[in-house]
Amino acid sequence: MRTVLGVSVGSATARATALDSADDSVRSANVVRSFEAKGHVAAALELLESMATVQQVDREDAVLAVPDDPASRTRNSAYSVHRSDRYNIVSELGAQLRYLRGSGQLDGLRTVAVCDVGASGTTVSVVDPASGRVYCAERTSAFGGTVCDEAVRDYLLATYGADELITSSGIDSLMVAIAYAREQLSSLRVAEVPGPFVAGPIRLWRSSFDEIVERAVYSIEDWTASVIVESPRAVNALVMVGGCAHLPLLRRVFRRDLRLPVFVPSAPGSLTAHGAALLAADEVRQRTRRPLAAVTTIRAQEFTTITAQEFTTITAQEAFGSTAYPVMPRHRSA
């Protein structure tokens, strides 16, 4: 039995999934939330190291999925894995596609649009899931978890707040509470939000949340539709991933207004780490039989989230990995 590890780097969360490489079953999963601004890479690396130690994962059996520059995605297969002395790195899009293909959700689809709605913004990539070829990719910061949370914060403070109760630390705590409430409202009708309010904690109803973010939701749907329409390839379906893909209003608007099948996986926020672990398992299975000549060069600067100080060993490295995974084994959860 050999354990592999996948870790995803997010602007508000870092997630890790450990799999048994024999059957791709989940052995362990973990998440780190609400770390300091600009500390997301450090949080992900700390999570990788701690999980690798606990699960006894060799460094070569761990894959880190990182946010990359959307403009660079058309240059290489999304499945390309960069190998360095310290870490194996893949684009978060490649990890997402690997999970989706292994789940069977992309069967029969030649071209899909992957809409990644995260905390810091939204990225839409039009891609061939079989080869990992990316035809176009665009990103906007006009909609994401932070945009929603800031809109809710402004509404709550204007409606229930008092100036004498507001402090910088109180605002930080309020933003964390709002983000947690946003996640709760994906399945509940109401969530409680503590904060600097005159009457104490308030109840935020899903209907109120929807009214607050409705304009932004319609705006991101229009933007997504424009990316799909301007794509050089016809799109067969859209898949929503990322932490904000669980928002009921967002899913409802996309399914109603986009003239495409719209799929939302059951755990859209955690599938990137799971997909990275599946790529690590693929590497284990293929390592002994893959020819050394099959290499793909990935420029480290394409992974814009990773700084030179954090990944000094990446520059001038070559990435070993095939440019496509034509047959994706099915995976199963724990």
Strand order of the largest sheet: 3-2-1-4-6-5
Distance between the amino and carboxyl termini: 15 Å
User: How many DSSP helices?
Assistant: 7
Instruction: Return the CATH topology of the largest domain.
Output: Nucleotidyltransferase, domain 5
The rough form would be described as globular
- By CATH reckoning, the class of the largest domain would read Alpha Beta
User: What class, by secondary structure content?
Assistant: alpha/beta
List SSEs in N-to-C order: EEEHEEEHEEEHHEEHEHEHEE
* CATH architectural group of the largest domain: 2-Layer Sandwich
The CATH superfamily title of the largest domain: ATPase, nucleotide binding domain
Using DSSP, what is the number of strands?
15
Number of domains: 2
Mean pLDDT: 85
Helical residue percent band:
25-40%
Largest sheet features: 6 strands, mixed
Q: Return Rg in Å.
A: 20 Å
Beta-sheet strand percentage? Answer: 15-25%
Runs in which pLDDT lies below 50 for 5 or more consecutive residues are: 292-302, 304-326
Task: Describe the overall structure.
- The protein has 334 residues and is α/β, with parallel strands linked by helices.
- It has two domains: 1-105 and 268-334, ATPase, nucleotide binding domain (Nucleotidyltransferase, domain 5, 2-Layer Sandwich), CATH 3.30.420; 147-211, ATPase, substrate binding domain, subdomain 4 (Actin, Chain A, domain 4, Alpha-Beta Complex), CATH 3.90.640.
- Helix content is 33%, strand content 22%.
- It has helices at residues 40-55, 92-103, 145-160, 168-184, 206-229, 248-257, 271-286, and strands spanning 3-9, 13-20, 25-33, 62-66, 81-83, 88-91, 112-117, 122-127, 134-140, 190-193, 202-205, 237-241, 262-263, 295-296, 319-320.
- The strands form four sheets. The chain has a six-stranded mixed sheet with strand order 3-2-1-4-6-5. Strands 9-8-7-12-13 form a five-stranded mixed sheet, sandwiched between helices.
- Helix 5 runs parallel beside helix 6.
- The protein is globular and about 65 Å long.
- The chain starts with a strand and ends in a 14-residue tail after the last strand.
